[in-house]
Amino acid sequence: MTLLIGLLLLLGSLGGLAIAAFAWEQGLQRRLKQREQVIRAETQSSLSDREQALGRAELALKQQEQDLKAQEQQQSEQLQQQEQALAVRLAATADAEQKRLQTLAGLTPEQARVQVRADAQQVLGDWYEQQWQAYQAVLQAKQQALAQEQLLQVMQAQSASTVRAATTKTLILPSAQMRGRIIGKAGKNIQAFRQITGVEINLENDHLEAVLSAFDPLQLTLASRTLEQLIQEGRIFPDRIDAVFNFQQQVIEAELPQLGAAAAGKAGVGELDPKLLEMLGRLNYRLSYGQNGLDHSLEVSQLAGRLAESLGADISVARRAGLLHDLGKVLVKSQDSELTHTQAGIDLLQAAGESPEVMHAVAAHHFEVEPQTHEAVIVQIADTLSAARPGARSQVLQQQVERLQELEHLVAVIPGVESVQVLRLGQELRVIVDPDKLSEVQTGRLSFEIARRIEQEMPAAGQVKISVIREVKYTDFAH
Q1: DSSP character for 184?
Q2: What pTM, to 2 d.p., does this model score?
């Protein structure tokens, strides 16, 4: 019985396996059919894409063929037009030649030779004119390139500082006690320093520094040298400040010819009249748009010399005129002057016996006269290069200096005014009057009159503090 049951179970298992095998075979056949259908669809799609691509390529080839035919037709038409134009020109030439021969046939041999010569000259003249115009164009381009190359070489060889002159100077104080000495009891010393030098001094900072400010380089230099000597001596009181300031004025006056001689030596211009050397030295204390006058003149001289050397001009004349071209600025301090600085400089050079070539180059450097020499043009170029270098000049600073000078001049022309000191960039005026010309009452009214004059003639000056000082000193000696 048990055996029979086992046999039945075995038969049942074999039947299940047979059924499973049949089901697996059926599923495999279905998957194969599906795969076959997918492959057939992909193949048909690929064939369709290829057929479409071939169709597009065929259309593109047909389009290219049409374009080539159109170009060929266009070129053929152009060639026909050119042939027709050439035929017309040849016919016209033949007609002209026929007419010319007919004309020559009616002339004598001598007349025919003259006519042929005239025709040949006309043809050659036209050809030479065309060649000359082409040559001029090439020459002009080469000249421009050569000029640029020469300027670049000169500017590269000329290394010059672009630092503008400052309107302030800072001195380091040795100690806090020295600051107290400079200020003095109740500010007596610092007030005397400002009054004597005409320069603003600022000690109100956290560092041991004295900051001097003035728009006049000469005043600033005098004040800084005076303060330096006072600090070295350690004796600071009003009378000593006045004595040291006067001494430094004499020292600077004595140094002026030396400054001029040093500049002339650097420029290589040879000997100069002593008066010209002094004027050159004074240029060191004059600013033009923030640019030191002597440095500018020396740079113009060196640039002009290099340009003259490159262009084959007179080097000595170019250097000399470049160094002396702005001397008139020392003499002409006001814009209201009837003489320009160029005219004043020419008068000075003429009195010193300078050559006509140098004076002409100086006279033409601002186009007040038409330049007639190569050296005059070279000085013009060198002056422009020195002034136009980036950083060399400041229009804003020049306008500020001119405003302060105008403010100073406005008060200085008042009768009885001995000197005017512009402090704090024009925010304060210190006016020293002559005690012999103005009384106490007149001095008291003067500040009011100055204020009204500034309001009327310089309304843009803003708020200006005006201090009028009338000081009377009596001195005697005991024996």
Answers
A1: -
A2: 0.54
